[in-house]
Amino acid sequence: MAIVIIRQDGKTDMWKEALLAADPNLPVFGYHDDHDPKGIKMALVWKHPKGSLANYSNLMCIASNGAGVDFIFEDEDRPKHLPITRIVDTYLAADMSEHVLALILANLKHLEHYKVDQFNKIWKPLQYLRIADVRVGILGLGTLGQVLANDLVRFGFQVQGWSSSRKSVEKVKSFAGPDELSDFLASTKILVCLLPLTDRTSDILNKELFEQLPKGAYIINVARGGHLVDKDLLELLDSGHLSGAALDVFHQEPLNQEHPFWEHPKVHMTPHYASVSDTDSVVPQILENYRRLENGDSLINLVSKTKGY
Ligand code: GLV
Predict the structure, then answer these.
(1) Residues 191, 213: contact at Cβ < 8 Å?
(2) pLDDT given for residue 32 in this prediction
(3) In the prediction, which pLDDT does 236 show?
(4) Which end of the chain is more exposed for a tag (fewer CB within 10 A), N or C?
(5) Which residue from 84, 85, 270, 277 has its CB within 8 A of the most atoms of ligand 1, so it is best to mutate?
(6) Residue 140 Rama label (left phi>0; alpha psi -120 to 50; beta)
(7) Distance, CA 116 to ligand 1 centroid (Å)?
(8) Helix or strand holding residue 7 (H, E)
(9) Cα-to-centroid distance, 78 and ligand 1 (Å)
(10) pTM of the predicted protein model
(11) pLDDT at site 191
(12) What is the pLDDT of residue 28?
């Protein structure tokens, strides 16, 4: 019984070392290491090459190495009967929240704008917004969304969230389902997307949705590039309906050099780094599930295959 790590971002050895540091006897292999595919029971994956999981005939579990699992569902050749798990981690949620808070505060105080003015030696104070006057709307009130919502409330923002089912988060107005989306959007000044990427949420950040936001709304997408219709965002930024957008995730990563986002003055880009799984914090839950597989116990952090998250 062994674990294989399948990822293509140069971090395989880092994860292998972290797992071995926690349990030096753990049979763990990188996808490119010499190993017997028949002995592999758990695959720890992050954007694995499609089809690679089909090599493992005795696999018992597909474990996402991050919070998202969209890339697993996109692999049509995966063994579809297997349970899928994901990472649920306090650092992952806290890091995401800190990233979004930093973006929102920078936006309220026009920090990006002043950096450009500084380069151009322009001295021109703008009117700024106060936290108490700003309503932030979070699309997706799951684990990450709820931590962000609580932090925003603590900071003094007005906060509301939209999700498929109604959620109860103190001081956060909860909107649920397609019927309540328009009301949610109409009162949102800063829109944060933290939805899981599924068939139902793909392309949700589109022209029709943007047009329901008040003029001057600001978009933050820290979920997946697949949520956003890029050309619709560009159109609404250029028309002046949206004041700007902060994007951490893209359809193609790294984003291709020709993409208009790179040079767009109203787009603030970061390289999918808002929240990255921390080895020390995450290794125990991977080992926990590995032990549970060994003992035939039910797994933690299971993904619902019907919901897709
Ligand atoms: C990051 O994007 C994750 O899904 O953990």
Answers:
(1) yes
(2) 96
(3) 98
(4) N
(5) 277
(6) left
(7) 31
(8) strand 2-7
(9) 19
(10) 0.95
(11) 99
(12) 98
Low-confidence ranges of the chain (pLDDT < 50): none
For ligand 1, what atom is nearest to the CA of residue 277?
5
Query: Do residues 242 and 217 make contact, with C-beta atoms less than 8 angstroms apart?
Result: yes
**How open is the CA angle 296-302-304, to the nearest 5 degrees?**
125
- Nearest atom (ligand 1) to Cα of 92: 5
CA of 235 to the centre of ligand 1 (A): 28
Question: Distance between CA 184 and CA 166 in Å, rounded?
Answer: 13
As a whole number of angstroms, the distance between CA 163 and CA 173 comes to 11
Ligand 1 pocket test, candidate residues 194, 275, 285, 301, most atoms within 8 A of CB: 275
Q: Which residues are catalytic?
A: 224, 272
Find all residues with CB under 8 Å of 50, minimum gap 6, and list them.
74, 75, 76, 77
Helix, strand, coil percent values for the chain (each to nearest 5)? 35, 20, 45
Angle between helices 143-155 and 90-108 (to 10 degrees): 50
Q: Tell me, what's the pLDDT at 277?
A: 92
Cβ atoms of 30 and 12 within 8 Å: the answer is: yes
* Ligand 1 proximal residues by C-beta, below 6 Å: 66-68, 277
* Contact yes or no for 183/169 (Cβ under 8 A): no
